[in-house]
Design a protein that fits this description.
The structure is a single chain. The chain has 13 helices and 11 strands. The termini are far apart. It is α+β, with helices and mostly antiparallel strands. The strands form 4 sheets. A 5-stranded antiparallel beta sheet has the order 1-2-3-5-4, sandwiched between helices. A two-stranded antiparallel ribbon has the order 6-9.
Amino acid sequence: MGCFCSRKSLLKLILGALSVLLLYKLLFVIYCDEDWSKDVIYKLCDHYNDGLIDGDVCHALCVDEEFQYRDCFNYRHRKLALKMKWKGRVVMLKALEPYLENFNNDLKKLRISLDKDYAFDEKLTTISTLLRIRLNNQITKYVQPKNKLTFDEIYQRLWTGNTSKSKKAEIVSVGSLSSQREYIFFQFYRNMVNFPDVFGTCGHMYVVEYTPPPWTLNPGASGLQEVSALKYWTWDRRAQLASNFMQMLRNFEVDFHEPFYFCDIKHPNFGITDDLTVKAIDVDMAYYKSTVESFIRKRKCTKETEATSCRFFDCITECDEHTGKCRLQENIFRGQPSSWFTTVSSKRNYGQTVGAT
């Protein structure tokens, strides 16, 4: 009997250990860690050392090793967001995709092939022409500048370094950077106080100012705390933060040529500086009104399929019964205001009254 119980206990122990190991493996695959993050950087630096990419921070990152890894904020195989220390300050190393090879499809449109020899399939003049067309299309699509920009003006915004030693490496770098909407947006609105500053690039990656979400500045916070940590702030500090958030919305209303929509409203997408200036740190789902409308007007719907056919993240849409197509409503927040806003400000109807700004 004792032997049977011992075997049963041993079996439970083994099964428990296997379950823990399986859970660990799943988490290891899903979440990034230090080893994975450093591997991403090593591969970037291999490309730099091989002459495939360039940028004004490549030497500091790959040769002088001025950047020290601190943390990783992304899931594996998704948008890269690494917390680094550089020149005595904390910065973020970001990219839409972790590896340069993830941009293969976009680079192929420029007739660039990332084969083992890093050869170009076409003459440099052909690639330069394709790049010129691509940059113009990207700027028209995402930025919609009031005044028409020359190719040189666009190029100077996207390429942070001086003329590269290798024109091919420069084109590969600019080609991959131009595939990233957030990078384009930050560079074209770099004079706006409510977006983080871009400090430089290396290949497809870019270095930006570190502006953490508000609750991480709470003295008692460690790591990613719940929003409730804000309740320990003084009233004056919370009121200042709420006021600065409203000022950010006001700036967007005044400075942009048409209503600007955030379609992914959550507290990690907004950060603050030491003086409580609010910054939009993730604008992958931020669009001008006309852009959102062009997305959803193509969708057919009925009142019965409205919830699924017309849904566009946090931007509120509805089905127009007369046309059978989706349309955009004027207020940008879906449902009840998020806990972040209700913690910062006591206005319960905040999300319903901001409107399209």
